[in-house]
Amino acid sequence: MIHEMRLNDLPFQKIRSGLKTAEYRLFDDKRKLVKVGDTMIFSNRLNKSAKITVQVTKITSFNSFSDMAKIYPDAKGTEQYYSVREEKQLGVVAIEFKMLS
Questions:
Q1: In the structure, what pLDDT confidence band is assigned to residue 79 with cuts at 50, 70 and 90?
Q2: Is 2-99 CATH 2.30.29.170?
């Protein structure tokens, strides 16, 4: 299955350069569809024609971003994008990947 996600410029550039190999999101209905082996296409919010294709290698769910940050330190700060209510209601997920293009 192919999943499309938009990213701000900084995380997009970190993926492109190989510095970022996981994406951290709410474990909402869209992310629950993502499985190991699936393809994700990230597009840059600043330049919608810029895209990166990756393959999902691991999925790990957590109760909160603070729990996630204990395993994935670079996830620290992700909670600023989501409400506490959403985080508690849905949980969160770390999606690891490798670059395809």
A1: confident
A2: no
